[in-house]
Design a protein that fits this description.
A hairpin with a 5-residue loop joins strand 3 (29-36) and strand 4 (42-51). The chain is built from 3 helices and 17 strands. The protein has helices spanning 104-111, 113-117, 162-165; strands at 2-7, 17-24, 29-36, 42-51, 54-62, 67-74, 77-84, 87-93, 99-100, 122-128, 133-141, 152-159, 171-176, 182-188, 193-195, 198-200, 203-209.
């Protein structure tokens, strides 16, 4: 699976990143993703490791800001580790229902599409490894979004906490009507910007193709 990411609300027609996903075909779950910059150099990458059919470890590297982060799922809970500019920090958290990391959100929506299509709200705990934590979000169909059409519907991912909503805008997933394909993801992307040492977030219009 491949895709292109464009800066949200930008007049530029040039992609910010090119994206590639490799699947674990046995589990039908994501295994690796790569974000390439305009020069086709790897900018950001993710790896998911499974054990006995379940996620055991998720990690990412953001090469341009010298950051590596990982979460390991243990019998006791979650162990977060982040290395940034040579400094290592760790954190442990209790395991809660519907923990998701990175591209797992895509397959979670796929697997829960029937409930979401009917308007059911689903609570998830989505990993933010740069903060050594995970935060509660609500997935729900958004019938008022302007991208709704006769052949597309929208799933909204919004933070459950007012405080988290101050720094995390909603993310929108544009799907076909039967939920078998996500066409676009609009909102915060994993890659970060680094302009003269100033690190920033990137909001994108992420267009996915097979």
């Amino acid at each position: 699976m491949k895709g292109t990411l464009y800066r949200l609300n930008s007049e530029s027609t040039t992609p910010e990143f090119y994206w590639k996903l490799k699947m674990n075909n046995e589990l039908k779950e994501p295994a690796q993703t790569y974000y390439y910059d305009a020069q086709k150099k790897i900018h950001t990458e993710e790896t998911l490791v499974y054990e006995k059919g379940k996620l055991k470890e998720y990690s990412y590297i953001r090469h341009n800001i010298n950051e590596q982060a990982m979460v390991t799922i243990t019998d006791d809970g979650l162990l977060f580790t982040r290395t940034f500019n040579g400094q290592i920090k760790t954190s442990t958290k209790e395991y809660r229902k519907n923990y998701l990391f990175g591209p797992q959100i895509v397959t979670f929506i796929r697997d829960n599409f029937k409930a979401l299509e009917k308007g059911t709200s689903i609570e998830i705990n989505y990993g933010a490894l740069n903060r050594l934590n995970a935060y509660r979000f609500i997935l729900k169909r958004d019938r008022s979004h302007p991208l709704n059409s006769k052949d597309k519907l929208i799933i909204k991912m919004d933070a459950d906490s007012f405080i988290v909503r101050q720094f995390a805008d909603p993310i929108y997933f544009v799907l076909n009507k039967n939920g078998t394909k996500i066409h676009r993801i609009i909102g915060r992307a994993l890659p970060a910007s680094n302009i003269n040492g100033k690190i920033g977030v990137i909001d994108s219009d992420f267009k996915i193709r097979d």
